[in-house]
Every structure is written in structure tokens, then in C-alpha cells.
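Reading a protein record of the kind used here takes only a little practice. The record below shows the convention in full:
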Amino acid sequence: MKKTVLRFGLFGAITICVLFVLALSLGSGLDYSAQEIIGYSSMIISLSFVFFGIKHFRDKENNGVVTFKQALKIGLLISLLTALAFGVLDTLYTQLVNPDFATEYYTDYIKKLEETVPAEELEAAVATAEIQKELFSNPVMSFLLMAVTVFVIGFIISLLSSLVLQRKQP
């Protein structure tokens, strides 16, 4: 099981890193909404290795059998490796490569708030955005937010994959 987790976790980690770099280079002119869609799509594509890792373990290493519990454990560990890789990569990007990212993102966000939020609610919405900006400017919080986001999506994929792929001994 350990080899499967490491192998497919590494595949997921490499994939999410490659897709992150591709999105940065090819999607630099896109607005933040489009970049967010690309980001979530990259997470889902990278976490598809959860399904393939569980299937590989069941079919190649465990004689066609995997319990729900084993499958979920494998999926969660693969998700964890992918999530940690993305958390580190995103933190490196926001702290070293583009330290102005939080300011740029929140400036754009506030501009959208001004266009969509009623005037009487705008001040409170901007204050909330400023608190979030400060929070996410912290590298530890940035890491945690990104890693947890990927892990939660990975948990859902692990759960679904475990339900689909579980197979008991005949």
C-alpha cells in the first residue's frame, strides 16, 4: 500500500505543480474568476490519481480486493501528498515569485464589490476583504488554506472512489 500511495501521490503532486505553472504562463491575461476555474479544474485533474491509485492497489497489489476502509485510507494519503505539494507551491508563489499577489487580487475583488454590492453594505464588505487579505498574506495561513482546499476536494474524491472501487473477497 505504501508504494501505491507514494507513487500516485507523487503523480498527483507533479501534475498539480505542472498545471499550476502552465496556468501561470498561459493564463496570465485572464481575470481572477477564470483563473479560479482553471485552479479548481487543476485540483480535480490532479486528484484523479486518487481513483487510479485505489484501482491500482485493488487490481495489481491486492488480488482484486479492497475494502472501503483501505480504499479511503489510500485515497486520503494520496490527497494529502497532493495537498501538501500545492500548499508549498502556492506559498512559494505568493511569497517569493509574486509577493504582490494578495494586493492585486484584493484590489480587483474590491473593484468588483464596488460594482455589485449596495452602497450601504459596501463598507462592511470592504472591511471583511481587508481582514481576509491580512490573513492570507501570512505564509502559514496561505499554506493551510491552499492545502486544506485541495485536501477537502481530495476527501470527496476519495470517498466517491472508495464507494465505487470497493470489492470484497468472493
In short: Residues 68-97 form the longest helix (30 residues). The mean pLDDT is 89. Residues 20 and 39 are 7 Å apart (CA to CA).
